[in-house]
Amino acid sequence: MSKLKRRVTLCILTLLFLVGGSVSWADKPVFHLEIREHLFSPAELRVPANTKIKLLVHNRDSTPEEFESYELNREKVILGGRTAIIFIGPLPPGEYPFFGEFNPKSAQGRIIAE
Fold it and tell me: Which helix (H) or strand (E) holds 59?
């Protein structure tokens, strides 16, 4: 196979991989979580069990906050006034606590997979 054909094949495979990867998340359920006055709202978020989800965390405060969960194996700093995307799952049925690393006493919540 010539160098040109190999490069074209590699480009096509890369493009298919990228498109396939983005399409696979396109049909996932989307859930919204808000940070306001160092509190998560809703503090309890119910999601379908055994399903990959896309979580959009909107920080309405002017200061940054970190979404942290040991059980979900996730941590993400969300700057003030910004939104972060966090992919989760699939989760077996159960409760998964999370908290704000910068305000752990007030910013607390849990995801319930059912």
Answer: strand 53-59
Amino acid sitting at position 75: E
User: Quick count: other Cβ atoms within 10 Å of Cβ 39?
Assistant: 16
| Residue 56: half-sphere exposure toward Cβ, Cα within 13 Å | 10
CA distance 93 to 40: 22
User: Using one digit for the tens of pLDDT, what is the confidence trace for 76-90?
Assistant: 999 999 999 999 999
Pick the CATH number of 27-113 from 2.60.40.420, 3.40.50.2300, 2.60.120.200, 2.60.40.650: 2.60.40.420
* pLDDT recorded at residue 6: 59
Query: What is the reported pTM?
Result: 0.75
